[in-house]
């Protein structure tokens, strides 16, 4: 990653800042873990260690280790000031992530096969600039193949929606 | 008691070897079932495909296909899953050599000399060398498993909770001591795994932990979902970011090329053996295949007469990382089978499979499930041969798959990941959790947080915790139980040395002065 030189206007945030923020998030999580473990009992009961005994120390180690990362990121003499992700890169990552999230959200409504077909078609057209004529066959073949593999060959039912219901499955 | 052990081990040396051989032959009997052979070839082929495709690797590939095996017998299932793993180990080399894109992390070192060879028009030679070395490394590792596993399992039968906790501790501390990443980050990632493993119902007291009153968190976090997200979705996001366009070399492997290459390979016996030893060592201790391949490459470069030419297309530079990677990948099964402690994320997924099929991994497996264990070990021998045959004959097919544009492959892989995540528990929530783990994997990779300790902690969290609690129960909360005999004391002390190794080596460097440790730089 270091060989990329950041083009002007592409800079977002420094790797060091993200490093520090992630360390802070870790520490926050560690506090939650320790707090929860403490509230269910993290000491020694008459019948042995309580349920929160082990997780409490897990939280404690997480907190101390992330404090170390944070201190390192803040105090280092050679901070990594390179861009954590360039604007164009972030754009293409979001171009994948957002449709994927929509696809996942659609599964309960449309079933995994129809949602999958729509997702593949959308992805091919928007990212790959394919024509509808090329996108449709691919987006149909994959779910149909999955359908035969799971529902018919291995007898594992996957979520199905109105379309499958209309076809009698 | 321990003295008795020692003498019986000496006397039993030859006997043990014979026992292992007899068991192995029985194991080959299990493979007499033609379905098992079919599953082996199917597994290897799927594995090569997984190894070639970006975003699908050994760990998440096995995780996605795991639900398909629920209806099979455990022997057939483990044969298919381990064959997928061998296939992925072989397949990683194809993309490294032809496209300069490592299909798997452990094939990164293969690109150094493999791709320059392809550029010189020697792709066939490079691939033949890579596959044959993989085969060699895998075979050495499985020989080691055959003769060492029963001994270790026998020994481990005497382990109590304190000893098991010692082994767990050593496993996890090794990540800190041997990892290339910042020790703070290794620890943080590992503790995240432990914390996630603790979510849900506490099996000892029946109390709810970290569920915050929600029903969704009651089930806890399944590591299979985490693996699919971290390694699958995360990898796709990274690949997209790099904006990869697959521009590769074509490969034709003809029998003549294979034969010509095979004639040159015996010259590199020393490199191959060194690579296998490094690989076996790194596979058993949870260093894993990736550092093993780099270490083997580095060693070969230092010791070879042609060391100067490494990086310009030396065949020896392909042999070294491939033997080590495959030896490490294979020998990672040794601690999984004998102690129930996987040496790599993929082995961890297979361990999860064992639990789902109702088998308890660990020393008792060798006593109670002989057919299963030896069937698996025998299948490793055959799986390696099957793998070699499949890759040598089908390289052009797999190379052409890589020419399919990423904008078609990526959504298909994401759909497959979603299907895989769903089938683990038939839960929609899991698919969303997978996506969150995907983003986490992407950010962690960019910030150099290691994923392997996270996954292993998530898998082993409950078992490590119960070993700890049982040990503490026995001793009534006295920590000195971890130094109560030489074995557990040695394990725990070694673990602590590993844990503080980064600090120790820093101190040693200061004392010795800056120039004296070239070995640490490798």
Jot down its keywords:
heterodimer, A: 169 residues, mainly alpha, two-stranded antiparallel ribbon, B: 522 residues, 23 helices, disordered C terminus
Describe this structure in words.
- The complex is a heterodimer of chains A (169) and B (522).
- Chain A is an all-alpha fold and 169 residues long.
- Chain A has helices at residues 15-40, 53-75, 87-126, 132-153, 162-167, and strands spanning 44-45, 48-49.
- Chain A has a two-stranded antiparallel sheet with strand order 1-2.
- In chain A, 33% of the residues are buried.
- With 522 residues, chain B is mostly helical.
- Chain B has one domain.
- Helix content of chain B is 74%, strand content 1%.
- Chain B contains 23 helices and two strands.
- Chain B has a two-stranded antiparallel sheet.
- Chains A and B meet through helix 1, strand 2, helix 2, helix 3 and helix 4 of A and helix 8, strand 2, helix 9, helix 18 and helix 19 of B.
Helix content of chain B: over 70%
What is the first-to-last residue Cα distance of chain A? 48 Å
* Major interchain interface with per-chain residue totals: A-B, 69 and 61 residues
- Give the CA-based shape of chain B: globular
- Percent strand of chain A equals under 5%
Distance between the termini of chain B: 43 Å
How would you sum up the major sheet of chain A?
Answer: 2 strands, antiparallel
Helix-strand topology string of chain B = HHHHHHHHEEHHHHHHHHHHHHHHH
Individual helix count of chain B: 23
Provide the spatial order of strands within the biggest beta sheet of chain A.
Answer: 1-2
Total number of distinct structural domains of chain B? 1
What oligomerization state is this entry in? heterodimer
Order of helices and strands of chain A: HEEHHHH
Largest sheet of chain B: 2 strands, antiparallel
What structural class do you assign from the helix and strand content of chain A? Answer: mainly alpha
Main sheet strand line-up of chain B: 1-2
What is the typical, i.e. mean, pLDDT of chain A?
A: 85
The count of β-strands of chain B is: 2
Global structural class of chain B: mainly alpha
What Rg of chain A, in angstroms, do the CA atoms define? 24 Å
């Amino acid at each position: 990653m270091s060989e990329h030189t950041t083009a002007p206007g592409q800079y977002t945030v420094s790797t060091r800042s993200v490093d520090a923020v992630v360390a802070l998030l870790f520490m926050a999580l560690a506090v939650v873990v320790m707090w929860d473990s403490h509230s269910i009992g993290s000491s020694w009961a008459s019948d042995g260690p309580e349920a929160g005994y082990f997780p409490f120390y897990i939280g404690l180690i997480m907190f101390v280790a992330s404090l170390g990362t944070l201190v390192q990121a803040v105090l280092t003499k050679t901070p990594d000031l390179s861009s954590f992700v360039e604007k164009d890169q972030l754009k293409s990552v979001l171009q994948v992530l957002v449709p994927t999230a929509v696809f996942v959200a659609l599964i309960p409504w449309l079933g995994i096969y129809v949602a999958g077909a729509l997702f593949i078609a959308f992805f091919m057209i928007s990212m790959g600039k394919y024509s509808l004529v090329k996108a449709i066959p691919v987006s149909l073949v994959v779910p149909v193949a999955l359908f035969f593999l799971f529902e018919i060959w291995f007898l594992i039912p996957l979520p199905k929606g109105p379309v499958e219901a209309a076809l009698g499955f | 008691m321990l003295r008795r052990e020692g003498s019986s081990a000496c006397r039993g040396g030859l006997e043990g070897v014979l026992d292992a051989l007899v068991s192995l032959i029985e194991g080959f009997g299990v493979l007499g079932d033609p379905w098992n052979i079919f599953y082996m070839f199917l597994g290897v082929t799927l594995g090569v495909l997984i190894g070639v495709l970006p975003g699908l690797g050994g760990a998440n590939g096995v995780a996605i296909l795991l639900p398909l095996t629920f209806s099979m017998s455990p022997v057939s299932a483990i044969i298919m899953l381990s064959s997928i793993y061998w296939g992925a180990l072989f397949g990683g080399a194809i993309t490294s050599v032809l496209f300069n894109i490592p299909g798997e992390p452990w094939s990164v070192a293969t690109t150094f000399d493999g791709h320059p060879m392809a550029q010189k028009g020697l792709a066939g030679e490079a691939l033949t060398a890579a596959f044959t070395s993989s085969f060699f490394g895998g075979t050495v590792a499985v020989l080691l498993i055959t003769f060492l596993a029963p001994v270790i399992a026998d020994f481990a039968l005497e382990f109590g909770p304190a000893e098991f906790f010692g082994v767990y501790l050593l496993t996890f501390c090794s990540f800190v001591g041997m990892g290339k990443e910042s020790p703070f980050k290794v620890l943080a990632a590992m503790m995240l795994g432990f914390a996630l493993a603790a979510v849900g119902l506490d099996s000892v007291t029946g109390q709810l932990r970290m569920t915050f009153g929600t029903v969704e968190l009651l089930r806890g976090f399944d590591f299979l979902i985490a693996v699919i997200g971290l390694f699958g979705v995360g990898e796709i996001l990274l690949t997209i970011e790099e904006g990869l366009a697959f521009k590769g070399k074509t490969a034709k492997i003809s029998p003549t090329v294979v034969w010509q290459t095979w004639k040159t390979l015996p010259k590199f016996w020393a490199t191959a053996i060194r690579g296998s030893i490094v690989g076996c060592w790194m596979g058993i201790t949870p260093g894993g295949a990736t550092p093993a391949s780099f270490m083997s490459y580095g060693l070969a470069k230092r010791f070879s007469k042609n060391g100067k030419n490494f990086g310009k297309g030396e065949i020896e530079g392909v042999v070294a990382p491939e033997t080590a990677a495959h030896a490490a990948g294979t020998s990672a099964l040794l601690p999984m089978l004998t102690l129930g402690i996987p040496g790599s994320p993929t082995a961890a997924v297979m361990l999860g499979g064992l639990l789902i099929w109702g088998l308890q991994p660990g020393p008792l497996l060798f006593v109670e499930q002989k057919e299963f264990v030896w069937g698996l070990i025998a299948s490793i021998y055959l799986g390696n041969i099957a793998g070699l045959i499949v890759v040598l004959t089908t390289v052009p097919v797999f190379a052409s798959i890589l020419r399919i544009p990423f904008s078609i492959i990526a959504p298909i892989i994401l759909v497959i990941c979603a299907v895989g995540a769903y089938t683990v528990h038939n839960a929609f929530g899991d698919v969303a959790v997978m996506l969150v783990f995907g983003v986490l994997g992407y950010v962690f990779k960019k910030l150099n947080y290691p994923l392997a300790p996270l996954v292993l902690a998530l898998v082993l969290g409950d078992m490590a915790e119960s070993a700890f609690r049982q040990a503490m129960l026995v001793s009534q909360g006295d920590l000195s139980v971890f130094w109560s005999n030489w074995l557990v004391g040695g394990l725990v002390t070694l673990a602590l040395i590993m844990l503080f190794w980064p600090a120790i080596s820093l101190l040693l460097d200061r004392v010795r002065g800056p120039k004296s440790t070239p070995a640490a730089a490798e």
